[in-house]
Amino acid sequence: MTCTELARQAITDCKIQQRLTSKQMDCIRKISGMGNNLNQITRKANAEGYTNARSEYFYLADKIDNALTLLENGSENS
Description:
By secondary structure, the chain is mainly α. Helices cover 78% and strands 0% of the residues.
């Protein structure tokens, strides 16, 4: 593919998006941390039984859903 063909394809097929804001990046870091917490809950569930970790899981899953919704909607509130 020539440079001209590549440029033409980029112009016609690409979708330009704005960069993530610092608050959106912070939200992504928080979601990553929650993922680590979820892994810890999974280990606890395997060691102690699933009923003991169930409430922690539901609490964290709700926080992750809320954070993803904020990020998806482009909200800068965290």
